[in-house]
Task: inverse folding
């Protein structure tokens, strides 16, 4: 480990370990410390941030994956205020495009939607009605028992489903859309409508200059100032109990630490692996949670591609989900006057495509991008870098919330709080922080852990 663990000698009520240094773990660690507990935050990589971490692309440092902040992201914005970063935010109106049948269409206004050639008037009306109806649904649990494809076909019709919904579902879910519930599309539409429901006239996208690299550095410093111990390069090997039922964590380097409680924010399948003392039922539930992963390319370009922040793609020959042009949203001075583009490809977490070499992904992505944008030349591509993550978000399959294991495990003092517990929203930074904030009360309310082994 890059930083040795040290004994906390203050008057904290209990000693907590938080395993996983993404924004979920960081927020949990901060709140537990603010409630007077001694907290050690363990992260397996050499820096905090998880999926929100930043990296270098050529001479530019920016987010490893694409992120935006919405006006309606109250939980995230509250954290940014706490870190004294919200006042620095930039708010921008963005444009949305569609790439359909080899042609770009703008879908940035109601008028452009009405003019959208691939759909007739009736299909457009049914599409609009579907979105509006979904935005008004309050009992999302009823949608957990309906396949998303069946629900969208029923409300939007077969033509709209085949031309619009199916390509978008495949882009985000791959063939896993066939077993995904309608709660997925409900959560997506709810986030889109959040600003309007709160009385805002329109939704705008925001960012902090310096990106998540700046946010995470400020958060890291804040945690240390509050007294949270941060341990990096900490690869967890196993979790269990001592004879006195305190929690013992064993690490791959042979070290071990003892705590009163441990909160695991790591993926469910990893929890099942490192916690051999879980009940058979708990392990089965954790193993049964399916995750979507991502292969995401970042490209630094000499010049912009187009006017759209996001271009949704419905043509099946394109090997990536969408074109995310961050520099259509973020001031290009952040990138030295160049353009930053993301090309995401969502895959099932166990998909064999994760083993494809970077060079092959680069060939496929660059060839398709140059076909989409004929003015783009190879000499315009200044840098290409690929991120691979197998555990991005849990698939909301039929009856998902009813099969989710309890956050309080049968191992005394061991809790699970991870992205699989986001059951009525899409995975984004605001939902992650909301999950952390909502879990603190439950953690603090259970000082004695009952025996759940039966």
Result:
């Amino acid at each position: 480990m890059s930083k040795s663990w040290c004994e906390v000698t203050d008057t904290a009520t209990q000693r907590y370990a938080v395993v996983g240094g993404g924004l979920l773990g960081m927020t949990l660690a901060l709140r537990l410390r603010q409630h007077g507990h001694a907290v050690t935050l363990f992260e397996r990589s050499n820096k905090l941030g998880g999926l929100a971490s930043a990296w270098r692309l050529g001479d530019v440092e920016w987010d490893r994956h694409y992120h935006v902040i919405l006006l309606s992201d109250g939980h995230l914005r509250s954290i940014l205020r706490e870190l004294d970063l919200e006042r620095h935010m930039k708010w921008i109106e963005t444009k949305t495009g569609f790439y359909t049948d080899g042609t770009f269409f703008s879908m940035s206004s109601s008028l452009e939607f009405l003019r959208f050639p691939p759909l007739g008037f009736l299909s457009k009306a049914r599409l609009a009605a579907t979105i509006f109806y979904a935005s008004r649904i309050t009992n999302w649990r009823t949608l957990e028992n309906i396949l998303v494809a069946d629900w969208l076909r029923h409300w939007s019709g077969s033509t709209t489903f085949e031309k619009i919904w199916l390509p978008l579902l495949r882009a985000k879910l791959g063939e896993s859309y066939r077993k995904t519930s309608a709660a997925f599309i409900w959560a997506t539409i709810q986030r889109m409508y959040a600003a309007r429901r709160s009385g805002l006239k329109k939704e705008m996208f925001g960012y902090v200059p310096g990106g998540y690299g700046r946010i995470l550095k400020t958060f890291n410093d804040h945690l240390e100032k509050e007294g949270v111990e941060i341990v990096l390069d900490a690869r967890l090997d196993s979790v269990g109990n001592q004879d006195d039922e305190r929690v013992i964590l064993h690490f791959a380097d042979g070290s071990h630490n003892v705590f009163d409680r441990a909160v695991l924010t790591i993926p469910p399948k990893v929890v099942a692996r490192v916690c051999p003392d879980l009940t058979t039922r708990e392990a089965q539930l954790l193993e049964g949670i399916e995750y979507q992963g991502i292969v995401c390319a970042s490209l630094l370009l000499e010049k912009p591609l187009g006017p759209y922040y996001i271009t949704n793609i419905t043509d099946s020959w394109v090997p990536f989900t969408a074109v995310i042009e961050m520099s259509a949203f973020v001031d290009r001075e952040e990138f030295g006057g160049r353009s930053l583009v993301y090309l995401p490809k969502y895959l099932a977490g166990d998909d064999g495509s994760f083993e494809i070499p970077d060079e092959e992904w680069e060939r496929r992505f660059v060839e398709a991008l140059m076909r989409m944008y004929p003015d783009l030349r190879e000499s315009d591509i200044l840098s290409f870098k690929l991120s691979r993550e197998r555990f991005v978000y849990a698939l909301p399959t039929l009856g998902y919330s009813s099969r989710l294991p309890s956050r309080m495990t049968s191992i005394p003092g061991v809790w699970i709080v991870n992205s699989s517990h986001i059951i009525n929203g899409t995975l984004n930074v605001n939902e992650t922080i909301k999950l952390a904030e909502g879990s603190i009360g439950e953690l603090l309310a259970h000082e004695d852990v009952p025996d759940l082994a039966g």
The radius of gyration is 23 Å.
